[in-house]
């Protein structure tokens, strides 16, 4: 457990950098924008791998018996979460986490929710909590879910403070909750190239995972739970 807590603490510390504008800007000035994002992405991936390896090394303690419907819940939540993360990271979004956060324009995914990356991580994590009935999975994915949930308050507060008087205009046509602005008629349901490419990438990654990639990486085949063989 100590190894997992250390790994997750490093993961959290890395993801506090974007939430600290002064430090983030200093690093971008020192390294350059491309180098900053490249190094940051590499360190984040390494930290994420460390978190998963530490979690998989924990003892397996069953909490409930997994059922096929739980796996199908993951098949719905995880791909949708991945779509939100990819589209959110690469869309222009001055309101939340995005590579192009500095731009005032908003990508199509922002009409769905102004915090697509956080919602993506939350749905992906919850989907895996439901499907797995053991303590280490609850600790791992539950930690990610809490991390994403806590991010809503921090990112929302930071965006409001940064935008100041521009916030009311910037927040029009979007909402924290997915699809609420669209259902209220405050924003159209639309797609742009980033969303379309993200959808294709999500489909390709999901197919690869279900075709054996998930088993190679994590030693578990989700299809075996969804389609049990007698």
From TrEMBL:
**Which organism is this protein's natural source?**
Ensifer adhaerens (Sinorhizobium morelense)
User: Where does the sequence pass through the membrane?
Assistant: 6-23, 35-57, 69-91, 112-131, 137-155, 194-218
Query: Which residue numbers delimit the NnrU domain?
Result: 4-222
A cellular component term (GO) from this record? membrane
Lineage start: Bacteria, Pseudomonadati, Pseudomonadota, Alphaproteobacteria, Hyphomicrobiales
- Can you say what this protein is called? NnrU family protein
Places the protein is found: Membrane
- Tell me any Pfam family this protein matches: NnrU
The question of whether Membrane is a record keyword is answered with yes
Q: How does it sit in the membrane?
A: Multi-pass membrane protein
Q: What UniProt keywords are attached to this protein's entry?
A: Membrane, Transmembrane, Transmembrane helix
């Amino acid at each position: 457990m100590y190894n997992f807590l250390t790994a997750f603490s490093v993961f959290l510390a890395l993801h506090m950098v974007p939430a600290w504008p002064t430090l983030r800007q200093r690093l971008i000035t020192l390294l350059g924008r491309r180098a900053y994002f490249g190094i940051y992405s590499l360190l984040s991936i390494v930290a994420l791998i460390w978190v998963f390896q530490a979690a998989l090394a924990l003892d397996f303690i069953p909490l409930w018996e997994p059922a096929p419907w739980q796996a199908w819940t993951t098949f719905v939540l995880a791909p949708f979460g991945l779509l939100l993360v990819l589209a959110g990271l690469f869309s222009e979004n001055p309101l939340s986490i995005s590579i192009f956060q500095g731009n005032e324009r908003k990508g199509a995914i922002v009409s769905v929710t102004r915090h697509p990356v956080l919602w993506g991580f939350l749905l992906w994590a919850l989907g895996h909590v439901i499907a797995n009935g053991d303590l280490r999975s609850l600790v791992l994915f539950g930690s990610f879910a809490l991390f994403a949930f806590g991010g809503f308050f921090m990112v929302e507060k930071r965006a409001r403070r940064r935008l100041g008087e521009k916030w009311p205009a910037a927040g029009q046509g979007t909402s924290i909750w997915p699809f609420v602005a669209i259902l209220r008629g405050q924003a159209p349901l639309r797609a742009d190239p980033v969303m379309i490419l993200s959808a294709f990438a999500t489909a390709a990654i999901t197919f690869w995972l279900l075709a054996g990639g998930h088993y190679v990486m994590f030693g578990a085949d989700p299809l075996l739970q969804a389609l049990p063989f007698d």
